[in-house]
Amino acid sequence: MRLHFFSLLVLVVSFVASGQRGVRIGYIDMNYILENVDEYSEAKNQLEIKVRKWKGEIDVLNNEVDLLKTALENEKVLLTKELVDEREEDIYFKEKEVIAYQQKRFGSGGDLIKQKQRLIQPIQDQVFNAVQEIAKAKKYDFILDKSGDAVMLYSADRYDISDLVLRSITRSAKRTQVQGRKAKQALELEEGNSLEVDKELQERKAKAEAKIAERERIIVEKRAERERIRQEKIKEYEERRNKLLEARKRKRDSILAVKKKK
What we know:
By secondary structure, the chain is mainly α. It has seven helices and two strands. The protein has a domain at 5-177: 2-Layer Sandwich (Protein Binding, DinI Protein, Chain A).
């Protein structure tokens, strides 16, 4: 199930706050993944060529409008009011044509948005599938996208699984392209080696995470112990102080009592 980054973050906090321990959280950088997928880069280059072509066409239309305006300005004194109105109407409709074409290509529902969506959607689906596989295999509870709407103010590299996702996508692409028994066997061997490397990397990460968690636990315990000792010393000091103040008060009351008798 896909969730907005902020909603997922709230779930993570709630999950931890409810008393669960050992939560495994990873994240990906979708922008980094997209930029490193060959088919996305190729399609992006093709789209950039189209964008340049569309912008060139818009420039041509704008130049035509400018020429019409300049011609009208130069010839205005020679034309009747009816002809001026006719020319201005032509310019008005030409400008509307340019605006309509700009909207068609670059508007909120225009060709650029549609083509970007068609370009990104297949890669996003591959990433989503790869993330699902990795999450199940590596037992992640949550995987976030740091390029989402909410900003990750800090993210440790050891939790970044973007390269794992990229390798998974690359393996899937190779499997669909490979022909022949020997080639498939070679690919399976390569994938096996790659998976072993991934496994080794994940084991190292897990050990590093465990060490960090243990170190943090010890720091928290030491801090709590120091605070306990400090509070005990404060309590002892307050008790001594109160006893001293009570002794002084008794002495003062005794002196006052003696003076009253006299």
